[in-house]
Amino acid sequence: MEFPTQALAELRQAAPHLPAKRAVVGLDGFVDTIVTPVALRNGQGEDFEPINTITEFGERVLQAAGKSANIEFFPRMDKLGGNGPIMANALMAHGVAMTYVGALGQSAIHPVFQDFAQQAKVISITDPATTTAVEFTDGKLMLGQMRCLDDVTYDALETKLGAAGVDELLGSADLISLVNWTMIPNMTEIFRRLVSDALPRLPAKERFFFFDLADPQKRSREDLLEVLAVIGEFGQFGQVTLGLNLKEAQQVHLALDFHTLGESKEDLQKIAADIRERLNYATVVVHPKESAACATADGTSWIPGPYVTKPVITTGAGDHFNAGFSLGQMLGLSATSCLALGCTTSGHYVRTAQSPTFEDLETFLANWPK
User: Fold this and answer.
1) pLDDT value of residue 326
2) What CATH number should be reported for the domain holding residue 302?
3) In a domain, 93, yes or no
4) Which terminus, N or C, of the chain has the lesser number of Cβ atoms within 10 Å?
């Protein structure tokens, strides 16, 4: 049985359990403006030639050294952003009951999150950060302003909810996903407080923890190793999954003193297995653009992804992968089928700019792109 067929069969068999699944996701929040950089403007509006690649953009910037430059960003859309809200939105589209904790607005929920707040229970600690997402054919640059995320702390959460409220928030969740460690300065301390204060008070149950570091290049190796160790302590209270794109996976792999590896099927499986074994996590998943691999105690899995050369949108693709993979875990699917759900959720999103419904997942799997 090919993996899309297997994943579709497993998904349909598990579907009756979906309405009971609950997730808590946090802790960031961004207002994203998606833009295209302009190389040559011929007229008003969209009458321009874009800067297509990051290399071209870099060359344009370097030419300004010692001089100056004016680079236009043509706005495509404003949308809710941040690893947490995008992942949460995708899980809700799948049918998962959602509580979101993060930075959605201080005195009132920011307008870009209004629809989101109608569907999820939201607990907002501070104002959202902002990102200008510059999209190219070979990647994207995320230009952020995020000082307000300094206010995301464990004390702020406990002040908002009280200790009993924190227990209630976490106690009924099947999935607790804490993402964007890189951008939230106090996240490691939040993790420590959850492990020392909140989680020991919760009743025992099967629960999944999902972590996404979110491009830790700007954090030191010492900070990275520290948080990886703290994440491991969540294993006392549930199954820990670390989700990584290719760049993140290679960085973590090197930080753990392994040799540099590429993105072949074998390399991806080894990277995932090395990280999982060294850190003693339940699962490590690695998802480059064209495939995905994961490692569990039972071994490694790999699938080719439904890659598309001209996506409608790329910002948020990894968060959609994380949502699909986590859905598979909550529903008890095999590791290979979890990978397939991650790729399906991401694949549908980059083609349509819409988070797929449960029915969309079935349709995509049944008609897996060749």
Assistant:
1) 98
2) 3.40.1190.20
3) yes
4) C
